[in-house]
């Protein structure tokens, strides 16, 4: 059993009352989970301040409470400790609690607006192919070696991260690949992790509801690289305008991948097809099962990271050649009469533009592109009209529909998207609130050879309407319409 003093190691704090030599059970930052013998850490949140729940945690038998301040608190039998920034300390406390698992793993964090899940998942699969045990923390799933666990967040809270990493160490993993979201950086969910590498993909419009301005969003992403330790690598996208900015103040070893600009890891696209691309990576020809130029970038991030982690090029390239697309990322479903549906998780203007670019690159003739797209409720509203605009620019027909409306009125979200449409484009657009009906209509409008892009939900197997998650899977809906299985 752990003592409170064990978890306070190397963290500046003041003991306000009680003893640090008290035995402790579990750590919690949610008072509702506190049981006798646990430690409650009060952190300021985005909705309420966790400091409001200190008395409740004490009443539930907390052995200790760690907070930035105590106001009108009757400590009872609990030890009280104060420290400057509890949100920042949470990860370190948890790391101490689990015997610093990240120091025993090679941890690579991937950040940027788009491509994180793809790169993290492909790195996990690549290192498994190379014969290592690895862990994955990503939007779709968490993996501890081969054990699959449901994902709650792209980057979960600090306690969950450290607990997952402890399980990875226990399962014999050597590597951990994790997505690092801007929310996680801003909320310090990643504090206390000993990173061995950081990867930057790109920075485009998203999450401005949370970060308010693009400059703040950029600052959050950059903080990740600013705080990487010496000895770690910082791998960036040389062709992205914010790529160099990200590494401006890092002490980590700076490296870059790219297709156009000067870079340490270089790539050329030799051939583009529906079922893959032929790439030249550092002068070596590699067939890949990925379509879309953006995936050449993702694969270069994977390749560069693998080499920086010490893997050998002659083993990495053949393994890359065997990798397959990640669930719901440019997933192609073909009907028996020759129509193509592509299910893709593009839920930002830039991702939508890129995925449509990807489709344009492989169009051979007069195929029509019909795009079905919505936008999530309770999320950045400013991206809605821009997403509609991007969809129209590269589609012959667009059906605006619902994504996850969450607490919002789906018709209003569609109306917000419609403001991005110009009068002369109106005849190209249909609005259908039911996502199933929207997909059905698109598939009916399509002729043999045509491409139906179903964007926004990718791997998701639910649709959240008025706070309730209903089972819904774009891929299942398409297969039913195409009479497959
Ligand atoms: C806006 C946001 O990011 N919120 C996250 C945040 O919660 P919060 O700050 O809002 O919590 P709060 O309700 O204000 O409560 C503050 C504190 O009081 C505590 N509390 C609260 C009530 C109580 O009775 N007792 C108590 O102790 C809470 O446990 C918390 O510690 O901290 C929580 C714990 O880490 C997260 O679960 C929660 O994620 C919410 C659910 C969420 O939806 N987040 C999304 C936006 C998110 O993080 N997304 C990114 C991906 C984005 C992307 O790149 O696409 C992700 O990494 O998943
Ligand atoms: N490198 C890239 N550049 C631009 N767009 C991309 C890139 N990689 C993927 N995309 C597009 O973005 C979508 C989301 O990809 P992915 O899930 O890998 O990103 P993510 O960063 O994990 O997103 P999230 O923040 O939602 O977890 C894909 O379905 C594709 O349309
Ligand atoms: N991680 C993103 C996922 C968005 C997926 C899209 N389908 C939506 O619901 O908006 C978010 O939570 O903003
Ligand atoms: Mg992701």
TrEMBL record:
Gene3D superfamilies in alphabetical order: Mur ligase, C-terminal domain, Mur-like, catalytic domain, MurE/MurF, N-terminal domain
Chemical reaction(s) catalysed: UDP-N-acetyl-alpha-D-muramoyl-L-alanyl-D-glutamate + meso-2,6-diaminopimelate + ATP = UDP-N-acetyl-alpha-D-muramoyl-L-alanyl-gamma-D-glutamyl-meso-2,6-diaminopimelate + ADP + phosphate + H(+)
Ranges spanned by the short sequence motif Meso-diaminopimelate recognition motif, renumbered to the chain: 403-406
InterPro entries reported in the protein's UniProt record: Mur-like_cat_sf, Mur_ligase_C, Mur_ligase_C_dom_sf, Mur_ligase_cen, Mur_ligase_N, MurE/MurF_N, UDP-N-AcMur-Glu-dNH2Pim_ligase
Chief location category: cytoplasm
Recorded GO CC terms: cytoplasm
Cofactor(s) listed in the protein's UniProt record: Mg(2+)
Keyword GTP-binding: no
The Mur ligase C-terminal domain, residue ranges: 328-458
Keyword tRNA-binding: no
Location in or out of the cell: Cytoplasm
Binding annotation for meso-2,6-diaminopimelate: 379, 403-406, 456, 460
UniProt KW keywords: ATP-binding, Cell cycle, Cell division, Cell shape, Cell wall biogenesis/degradation, Cytoplasm, Ligase, Magnesium, Nucleotide-binding, Peptidoglycan synthesis
Residues that coordinate or bind ATP: 112-118
Protein name: UDP-N-acetylmuramoyl-L-alanyl-D-glutamate--2,6-diaminopimelate ligase
């Amino acid at each position: 059993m752990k003592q409170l003093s064990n978890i306070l190691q190397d963290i500046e704090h003041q003991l306000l009352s009680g003893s640090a030599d008290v035995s402790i059970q579990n750590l919690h930052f949610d008072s509702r989970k506190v049981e006798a013998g646990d430690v409650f850490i009060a952190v300021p949140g985005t909705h309420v301040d966790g400091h409001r729940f200190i008395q409740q945690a004490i009443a539930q038998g907390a052995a200790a409470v760690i907070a930035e301040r105590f106001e009108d608190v009757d400590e009872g039998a609990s030890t009280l400790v104060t420290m400057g920034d509890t949100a920042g300390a949470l990860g370190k406390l948890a790391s101490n609690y689990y015997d610093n698992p990240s120091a025993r793993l090679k941890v690579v964090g991937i950040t940027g607006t788009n491509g994180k899940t793809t790169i993290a998942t492909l790195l996990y699969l690549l290192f498994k192919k190379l014969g290592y045990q690895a862990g994955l923390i990503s939007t779709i799933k968490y993996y501890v070696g081969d054990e699959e666990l449901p994902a709650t967040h792209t980057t979960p809270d600090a306690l969950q991260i450290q607990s997952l990493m402890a399980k990875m160490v226990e399962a014999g993993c050597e590597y951990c690949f994790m997505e690092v979201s801007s929310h996680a950086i801003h909320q310090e969910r990643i504090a206390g992790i000993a990173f061995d590498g950081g990867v930057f993909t790109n920075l485009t419009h998203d999450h401005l509801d949370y970060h308010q301005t693009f400059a703040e969003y950029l600052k959050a992403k950059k903080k990740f690289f600013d705080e990487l330790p010496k000895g770690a690598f910082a791998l960036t996208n040389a062709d992205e305008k914010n790529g160099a900015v990200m590494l401006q103040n890092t002490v980590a070893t700076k490296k870059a991948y790219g297709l156009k600009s000067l870079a340490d890891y270089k790539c050329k696209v030799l051939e583009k097809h529906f079922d893959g691309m032929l790439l030249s990576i550092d002068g070596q020809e590699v067939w890949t099962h990925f379509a879309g130029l953006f995936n050449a970038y993702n694969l270069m991030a994977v390749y560069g990271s693998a080499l920086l982690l010490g893997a050998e090029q002659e083993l990495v390239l053949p393994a890359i050649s065997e990798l397959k697309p990640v669930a719901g990322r440019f997933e192609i479903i073909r009907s028996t009469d020759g129509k193509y549906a592509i299910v893709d998780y593009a839920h930002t203007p830039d991702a939508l533009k890129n995925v449509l670019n990807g489709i344009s690159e492989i169009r051979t003739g007069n195929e029509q592109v019909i795009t079905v797209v919505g936008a999530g409720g309770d999320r950045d509203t400013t991206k809605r009209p821009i997403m509609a605009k991007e969809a129209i620019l590269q589609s012959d027909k667009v059906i605006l529909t619902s994504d996850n409306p969450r607490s919002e009125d789906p018709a209003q979200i569609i109306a917000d998207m419609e403001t991005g449409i110009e009068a002369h484009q109106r005849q190209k657009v249909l609005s259908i609130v039911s996502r199933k009906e929207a997909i059905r209509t698109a598939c009916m409008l399509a002729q043999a050879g045509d491409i139906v892009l179903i964007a926004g939900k990718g791997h998701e197997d639910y649709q959240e309407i008025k706070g309730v998650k209903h089972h819904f899977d774009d891929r299942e809906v398409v297969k039913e319409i195409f009479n497959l299985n």
